[in-house]
Design a protein that fits this description.
Order of helices and strands: HEEE
Strand content: 5-15%
Number of helices: 1
Number of strands: 3
Strand order of the largest sheet: 1-2-3
Structural class: alpha+beta
Helix content: 10-25%
Largest sheet: 3 strands, antiparallel
Distance between the termini: 60 Å
Shape: elongated
C-alpha cells in the first residue's frame, strides 16, 4: 500500500477560520488525486485529514502531539493590552 501525505499552509490577515481553509484545501487535493487515480485503483481511501498545528488567531498556538493517541498541546496567546 502506498501513502500520500498532503499539506496546506494558508496565511491570512483575518484572525479566525484559517484552519478550516487548510482542511478544505487538503481535502480538495486528496479528492483530486483520487479522481486522477481511480482508473487504476478504486479501493483507495482518504484517511486522517487532521490539523497538525496552528498559530495566531483567537485561540493562540496549538500543535498536535507526535503520538496519535497522546494529548495535544496548546499555548495560550499573550493577552493584548487595551488602551482606553
Amino acid at each position: 500500500m502506498k501513502m500520500i501525505d498532503v499539506g496546506a499552509k494558508p496565511r491570512t490577515e483575518h484572525r479566525t477560520g484559517v484552519e478550516m481553509e487548510a482542511l478544505a484545501a487538503v481535502t480538495a487535493a486528496l479528492l483530486t488525486i483520487y479522481d486522477m487515480l481511480k482508473r487504476y485503483e478504486r479501493g483507495m481511501r482518504i484517511e486522517a485529514v487532521e490539523l497538525v498545528s496552528k498559530s495566531g488567531g483567537r485561540s493562540g498556538e496549538w500543535r498536535r502531539s507526535s503520538s496519535r493517541t497522546g494529548p495535544s498541546t496548546r499555548r495560550p496567546r499573550a493577552a493584548k493590552s487595551r488602551r482606553a
